[in-house]
């Protein structure tokens, strides 16, 4: 049920990945109109798989997209930790830890999930690609928004869902929001499938805190990841060509499949490079502007929770808007419900990410031995607590159905 307050309200959402289109879905359910502005020239492909876990999966079900997401699953059988000669040192099948371990039971390519959400919302939501917000003037009764490439417009609310580096957030919150780097850079790229890639993800540690990982996808290609420990140096702001050059330098001399991945760097169009970090915002709204997903509370890919937080956050934000008499109370309630969930998701196990990126050969040996122990059936029950993200730790509110959405 939408309140009189929500009917016909216009909401601008910045960012069309997971959080933005999910919010557009729910706003439509409650009689609001969303406009989504995305900086990229279309739904951005790229990245590896993201996990739908616990409450995130429950929200996907309520949105009516769970079956489509399941059909688009990569179907990965598990993850194997391998040495330079591709010998398996430890292996976890997808169904260990109740399907909530390293590889979740429901893994879908981030770009495929974004595409699916866009498809499901584009009939009722206006998507503006290749543009971004340049200024926000929050007047008491509306927000006046300027864009880089289109005339100014007014909206009732503005939601920043434009990821960890959200510039929309910066326009309102400035330095108030901290992005805490975790000491790790990661590059994701899509490469051609080799005959031997198989159906398991493979993870290889090389000395110097460097990792190369390969994951099969459901589109006939392979998703490669290269990550390395490094304090923040601003590499994430370099042009793509310079980032690729940096990777060649950092991964020079690494064996296993690294030369193959480096060999495909130049041709790789789907390339995403980031300084891995978390977003800590003391408040998630200011006036008529609120933060959603990674823009407000990125937990990092290491947490395995980013997509669940985005889906659950969108569900709660829209539901609270629909059940309060005004945006201020709704934003407060959204934050009150979501904060504890986010705090748990951001609480990473000790020594992460360093423990998974040992610097020495001896360290790699210890890491693999620990994993091999955790993979033993007798230890799995204990290991599950340490290795599974806190995906269930929120009681999803039940909002009244408005347009007859599936529950
Ligand atoms: C290309 C890409 C690849 C990723 N790969 C992985 C992965 O392999 N594993 C993983 O765990 N997580 C990955 N992530 C992060 C993951 O999608 C999020 O942690 C999670 O799904 C929450 O999504 P989100 O919608 O809040 O933010 P994001 O997924 O980060 O999406 C933000 C969106 O906003 C757009 N944007 C950025 N700035 C602006 C702006 N100023 N104006 C308008 N639009 C803007 C971006 O192009 C993007 O579409 C990736 C993100 C991206 C963008």
Task: Write up this protein.
- There is one protein chain.
- Helix 1 (19-29) runs parallel beside helix 4 (110-121), helix 1 (19-29) packs parallel to helix 9 (306-323) and helix 2 (54-63) crosses helix 9 (306-323).
- The protein has a domain at 10-74 and 109-179 and 278-346: 3-Layer(bba) Sandwich (FAD/NAD(P)-binding domain), CATH 3.50.50.60.
- With 407 residues, the chain is an alpha/beta fold.
- The longest helix is centred in the last third of the chain and has 20 residues, at 327-346.
- Strands 5-4-13-14-15-12-16 form a seven-stranded mixed beta sheet, sandwiched between helices. A six-stranded mixed beta sheet has the order 7-2-1-11-18-17, sandwiched between helices. The chain has a three-stranded antiparallel beta sheet with strand order 8-9-10, covered by helices on one side.
- The protein is built from twelve helices and 18 strands.
Throw out a few tags for this protein.
12 helices, 407 residues, six-stranded mixed beta sheet, 18 strands, seven-stranded mixed beta sheet, FAD/NAD(P)-binding domain, alpha/beta, binds flavin-adenine dinucleotide, single chain, globular
* Helix/strand structural class: alpha/beta
Low-confidence stretches: none
CATH architecture call of the domain at 10-74 and 109-179 and 278-346: 3-Layer(bba) Sandwich
Q: What fraction of the residues are assigned to beta strands by DSSP?
A: 25-35%
Distance between the first and last residues' Cα? 14 Å
String of helices and strands: EHEEHHEEEHEEEEEHEEEEHHEEEHHHHH
Tell me, rounded to a whole number, the average pLDDT. 92
Largest sheet: 7 strands, mixed
Q: What count of helical segments does DSSP give? A: 12
Could you tell me the number of beta strands?
18
In CATH, the topology of the domain at 10-74 and 109-179 and 278-346 is named FAD/NAD(P)-binding domain
- Rounded radius of gyration (Å): 21 Å
**So what's the overall shape?**
globular
